[in-house]
Amino acid sequence: METGDEWLCPACGAIQPLPDVIDDFACLGLPRHLQLDAQALAERFHERSRRIHPDFFQTKSGREQALSLEASARLNRAYRTLRDPIERMGALIRLETGQPEIAAKAPADLVEEIFELQELRETVRERPGDTGLRERLLAERNTLIDRLTRLERELAQLAARWDRAVDGGADADKRALIGAMRDWLSGRQYLVNTIDDITMTLEGRSDAKDRRH
Q: Which residues of 75-91 are buried (b: 16+ CB within 10 A; e: fewer)?
């Protein structure tokens, strides 16, 4: 029986309560792989969605209608997560480590530069008409955007290495990769936050302020 079919009774087709704990991959009957074909994932989602969609339980009991709503909502959340490669990696790390959050953290080689950048942002806020300062800050943002682009090119490589480790059953490799992927997500989020902060400063938005990265 394919994972996920337990939501329906094999004998009568009645919808069953969700397991107490079911993760996003299990919702769609998938192994914990990071390389997923987008079209195949969508087809799998739609096939499962059709079987448990509330429209097909309108004439059933109130209990079955409620279970259908719950199952459909859970399946939708799983699909939204897994169709995004970055969200998918985050979900995998949370499953493997049991830790709910991955905090944004500056890459080690950016720490000193970030202090200077924060000072520049503060000066621009104090002197918004200074064209030279704004151009410097804009150049810093473009540098960070380039760095983010280069970093995101590593995502496919990390995903491929993880899937090979899973298929090969190499627990030591898996543990090392979990750490590498956590660092990747943490550093990426820090860059995204910093770029957003600079953008708000350049736009003169009143809510432009340093985040707690």
A: beebbebbeebeebbbb
Final residue of a structural domain among 26, 48, 83: 83
53: amino acid identity, one letter: H
DSSP result, 163-206:
HHHHHHT-HHHHHHHHHHHHHHHHHHHHHHHHHHHHHHHHHT-T
Q: Residue 135 is encoded by which pair of tokens?
A: 């151009």
Residue pair 81/91 in contact (Cβ under 8 Å)? The answer is yes
What's the full length of the chain, in residues?
A: 213
pLDDT in tens, 90-116: 999 999 999 888 899 998 888 888 999
Range of the domain at 48: 5-83
Burial class (CB in 10 A: 0-12, 13-18, 19+), 190: buried
Q: What is the pTM of this model?
A: 0.84
